[in-house]
User: Fold this.
Amino acid sequence: MNRTTSFPRLQIRPGDDRIVAHVGARVLGDLADQTGLTRDLSSALSGLKQRQRGHDRAQVLLQLAMAIADGATTLSDIVVLRHQPALFGAVASTPTVWRTLEALTAEPLARVATARAAARQRVWAAGLDPGFYVVDIDGTLVTAHSDKEGAAPTYKRGYGFYPLVATLDATSEPLVALLRPGNAGSGTAADHITVLDAALAQLPVDPHQREVIVRTDSAGCSHDFLDYCVTQGTRFILGHRLTADLPVAVANAVGRRRIPAPAVARRVALHAPRPRAQRSGSHRPDRSVVLSPPLTGPSSRVTERLGLAPGGAGIRSQEARGEFLNVTS
Assistant:
């Protein structure tokens, strides 16, 4: 790990009653320094600086990330860091931040992604490998309160953006996000493939050698996306669109034995999984069901799981008698 720092050195004095605001944001900058991310970003973006004495573009990106983590909602909010030079050093002006983001075309962004992946590989090699790899891909609506470039009406009658985000379940860290307009399709296979490709590039593991699971809702249930998962060596878990009569038939099945389904075991610490607890009102059948033809490849299986609809959730045509049918493959 890198032991140098690009920020002013701090002294911790016990017993002092003075409080330093926003010091938590500084910790993120120190983490970037210690993992070598600052160094790699500086090298990747060295050609973007217009003046020799200008701000290092890697430092500008890190300062912007710290400001966002500290609650910034606009680029001008970086002024909060600029007010504390003893804590954050020389902070870029808002126009400099604009110029930095404007210069991040496809090629520099690819180098930024490479630098992020290299930092993650060093951190995992130092002993923080979570040990299991489930990549969640889902869209999320981001509201734009004014007319922004690329903003569009959303399917929920809002206005803004509909990015597709991939996160790592074990650590809850975002691996990649694809910015899309608000009217982008939920089940666009090409976007899911783009996000999965970029997410796998961020993981220092080979899906052909270590089990990597891709998890999506029914938006990812397309032949193109699932075929791509197979070629990349990843397993997948996803929702499947059902006809109205299928869940009714399953719910009304006579003599069907049900087994309590365990809750998903999310790790609270990197090396300490939580014990699996039983989900309230959730059951699974005692065997899998194979639907023909399979979604993709001869090894794909479709299993069913029944559970009580979450509180406040509306009952749709895929649900019957207060239960929903979840099909995974």
In short: Confidence is low (pLDDT under 50) at residues 261-294, 306-310, 312-329.
